[in-house]
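Subject: mRNA export factor MEX67 structure
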Amino acid sequence: MLQRASAPPTGPRGRAGPRGNNSSTTAISRGGIRKRRSGTPRIDKDGDLDMDTPVEGMGGRGRGRGRGAQMGNQNGGNTIAGRGQPRNAPQGGFFGGASVQQAILRGMARGDARIRGPRAGLGATSALGETVDRRRERDAGLDQIRVRGLKESKAALNEDGGVRDLLAFLERKANGPDTKPGDAVRIKKSRSEGDSVIISVRPEDAPKFLRLNAFQFAHSILAIERHKGPPTRDDASQPFESAEALDTKQILAGFLSRRYSVEQKLLDLSNLGADQRLLGRGFFDQDSTASKLFPAMMKIADQLFTSSKEKREAVVSVVLSNNALKDISMVSSLAATFPDIKNLDLSNNKFVDMRSLDGWRWRFRNLEQLVLTDNPIETLTPTYKDEILRWYPTLRMLDGIQVRSDQELAALAANRALASAGKLPIPIRPASFLDQGQVGENFVKHFFPAYDLDRENLANSFYDARSTFSFSVNTSAPRALGGEGQKSLNWDAYIKGSRNLKKLSHLSARMARAHTGTEDIRSCWSTLPATRHPDLLSMGSKWMIECHGLPGLTDVTGQSATGVGGLIIVVHGEFDEVSVSTGITKRSFDRTFVLGPGAGVGGIRVVSDMLTLRAYGGYESFTPEDIDPSTTTGVTSVASKQPQIPEGLGEPTAGKSLEQVRKEQMVIEMSKRTGMTLEFSNMCLDEKAWDFDSAILAFQDVKVNRTSPLMR
């Protein structure tokens, strides 16, 4: 939470209430009329404040500081006074950088920067329950008056540009010394427009303000006249801002200016709860106002820049230390406002695990340095560093320690360049289909047509009482560009049965979505929509199928204590989902089968069947590089390119160790990829201590041409 220390109550108001609670915000009301507190800014959804609400001294000294929203701690922060730099910042250029954005930040400090209010859409509803359209209708009855001369006055040097003092001056002079409180005139709305301030007042009050023309204000002569013409284009789509709303925005803009270092490109937002100006305005008097403070700051900061490039060059580092943050919920908008920062300091907060930071996973894609010291996560979650490295691939420094070398980061930059050019850093290779006696090929050819036409008989043919099936939905998978890939998909038919282990945390829910036995699997299949897969033989380019031997499967007959050999088949493809109500929807899928000996068709059984459904992603990534797609015709073409393998080679048999099976399978794969004979493939792998990648590189180094004696 955002935290500040509450001051002890004094005077008669500090005595305990009905339940010993001295906070006026939590005391039980006994009815009657209570005086409204005026110190806390009351901003509605339109960014407006009611000017009829009195503000003590216009200086922002809020009275009660009862139950404080939590922001910061009681140690006064760890920043260097006047510089906004953390005392414990890592040395050696942690926040280095040249001077930029002086004009923007200097203008922000003077109040020259125009802070726009939120845009309200048609029919939007304000905090008071009335629609924006109705409020504009009501405001249309106000007279608008233009006031010039503020920029030439000494008040223009004030933090808010002098607007607050000007409005107070106009109201004081318009009312006069003899005006009774009930007859006082008020400025209902105000906004800045160029070098003028436009105020909105009731028609009957307009003459009292117009007679102030040529009055002297802060050594400047004011020019006051009726505002002619419609509102400007920028202001036509939003309601006017009240004086106090504008004042609040200027205070926040001034705060950002004070906390920004132009030379270091650093925005220091540490220990916010100890800032006396924010405390004086009552931003921490209630949880509701404290929770809106940081998003309001980010909105104002975002409006100070005209482009993402300008923002990226101006703010490189952000400090959020000493804010007693248990999670990032209150400061999550930082990632949207400054997504390209390179340095982030989150030290001395209350983060206990990675879940408290989960909202920033995969954000800040250019982050180079992160500080999480003095957080409970260091001791309660010692493996957090491994997770952080996965979240931020460009991270160089973590807690002051280098976690990636310059070479790793250079390789990453090269891979990004290839990706931006439409190339992957790892070449796309043909599918590895190491079948045994065409068992896997025949199964695949039979399974998918039967799944489309007759699921009941399919379940009886390959599944038994020990077979398992489950499916899950991956809604975050990449989609194909254009066409079906951009279509809004409905997953209602799958979500209830989806076994996504990243989203299901309860064991009972996980177990209920794992189907075991022929009857249970057949019942589950009957609830899934009808499908139509592309033909394997004529449209093989739309499929990617891999097949490998899998030794050590449980022998259901109990005859082999060491297990039996099987196959694992991974299928990537697509299908058309056929529905009477929604028509045809194209989807992509991934399906993994584990096959073993059994009483099913062809003497095999499905041990495990896992299906993943996702939005249509196309099939272009299945095509190997430098291979004509027209030559890729699915399983048949892949199998036809396999070397002539002696019977039993690469298969688990009695007396053959698992290590020997693994080496034989590597020899087969080496021969398939390089075109060498099995004998020379074995020699090449043996020379490289059975390191497959090293053997491939060695082959590429010595290969001269296709007529080498090593080639078949």
